[in-house]
Amino acid sequence: MPHLLLKDLPRFECLLEAAKEFPDLDPSAAEAYLHLLRTSDEAFGVTERNLTEHNISQGRFCVLMLLWRSTRPGGRNLPDADAIVIGPRNPAELAEAANVTRATMTGLVDTLERDGYVVREPDPVDRRMMSVCLTAKGERFLREFLPGHFRITSTVMSTLTENERKTLVRLLAKIQSQAAALQASQQEAWSASS
Amino acid sequence: MPHLLLKDLPRFECLLEAAKEFPDLDPSAAEAYLHLLRTSDEAFGVTERNLTEHNISQGRFCVLMLLWRSTRPGGRNLPDADAIVIGPRNPAELAEAANVTRATMTGLVDTLERDGYVVREPDPVDRRMMSVCLTAKGERFLREFLPGHFRITSTVMSTLTENERKTLVRLLAKIQSQAAALQASQQEAWSASS
DNA sequence: AGAATTTCGTTAGGCGGCTAACTGTCCGCC
DNA sequence: GGCGGACAGTTAGCCGCCTAACGAAATTCT
Questions:
Q1: Are B176 and A168 in contact (CB under 8 A)?
Q2: Nucleotides of strand D within 7 Å of the protein's CB atoms
Q3: How many Å apart are CA B191 and CA B194, to the nearest integer?
Q4: In the structure, how far is the CA atom of residue A18 from the C1' atom of nucleotide D30, in angstroms?
Q5: How confident is the model over B125-183, as pLDDT tens digits?
Q6: How far is the CA of B28 from the C1' of C13 (A)?
């Protein structure tokens, strides 16, 4: 479970009350924000429990998925099979795709290699680079692990109808783009001030 | 930013494709799940950036909020002021409310005390216990920090109308209760097997 | 009253992120 | 053709979270 968060969210009336003192506090916005983080945390907790039972972390799992997407032809059943891009293989590409630093990726690949799910191979042409490859053991692990993982995520979302899922995704996408824009402006302000 | 997550979520067609191979994969459920985590991560990232700029972590901030809720009368403007419960003060209560272990709370209070936001005082009646109290500096910090924090969360949610926020909270609550139920059943299964 | 259990806070050690600094390799430019 | 940057991967060290185990104090059970 990732970040520390209040177990019981403040009730809406409390937010209304607090808004009297802090005019910047938008009660419904704060409520939505808190619920978003809380729910995501809880949903993630359920899958993470499954991950740790299989002795793997979210980060390592993410790397395996990226490699799996790249090793398997992917477009085998698609008409334009040859157009399918091969996913990332270098640590740097993996780090970029997984949204972590290269240093973190080094650690993840270290443990994955130690567990035999992955091997590192030097790049023959550019001697700075490495290739990270999924082993047969790694692929076997995914093949055994994924069905249960998918069942869990399906169960978590099973209370929502197809329409509800659609609206949820739509609303989340709005928030996400807003957050991304805000983050960009934050970075801009930071680089301008330094 | 808490957990490692794919930067670009797989497109829905890819999920449909993968579902052919994994019958347990419910494409719309997986899509909703991934969007939920991704959006929460991004939204949290925006506020966390603000937190770290003020040299504080989400965990410490959470503790300060809990203490603040407990020190201030809270019900000052409410009719039934005397019925207002006083919030947690012991490390154990704080840990429970913040959803972390007591060991973690020790560390959080350590750094908060080092920064002068909080003091520890031994309980006069039960010598096992400590009382954690917000200092004037801690309250001043909150008073200066919160407006900006509220502005940020309001901005993140500003793309949603009041109605959209309501439906979002409703859908999230459904997911949350489902996740909580699942977690309970997981725990049950675990304790039964051991 | 004394022993066993519970509870509180802390410590020790692990893990997974991060930043910053380093080594080694490639590339462009004079 | 050598040299300064740019880039890949690693290392070192920090922080926040976790679990496990501990000593001290309170509580419960004989």
A1: no
A2: 7-13, 15-21, 23-27
A3: 5
A4: 53
A5: 888 889 998 999 998 999 999 999 999 999 999 999 999 999 999 999 999 999 888 87
A6: 42
pLDDT in tens, A49-58: 888 888 888 8
What's phi and psi for B138, nearest 5 deg? -65, -45
SS (H, E, C) B168-186: HHHHHHHHHHHHHHHHHHH
B182 touches strand C (CB under 7 A): no
Looking at chain B from residue 43 to 72, which residues have their Cβ under 8 Å from any Cβ of chain A?
43-46, 49-50, 58-59, 62, 65-66, 69
pLDDT tens digit string along B26-49?
999 999 999 999 899 889 888 888
Beta-bridge mates of residue B133: B119
Provide the CA B41 to C1' D13 distance, Å, integer. 26
**pTM for the structure as a whole:** 0.86
B-chain residues within 8 Å CB-CB of A81? none
Query: What CA–CA distance (Å, rounded) separates B112 from A86?
Result: 48
> Which of A78, A194, A85 lies closest to B8 in space, CA to CA?
A85
Q: Which of A29, A97, A176 sits opposite B154 (nearest CB)?
A: A29
Q: Token pair of B123, please?
A: 């309980």
CA dihedral A186→A187→A190→A192, nearest 10 degrees, is -110
Q: How far apart are CA A9 and CA B120, in angstroms?
A: 26
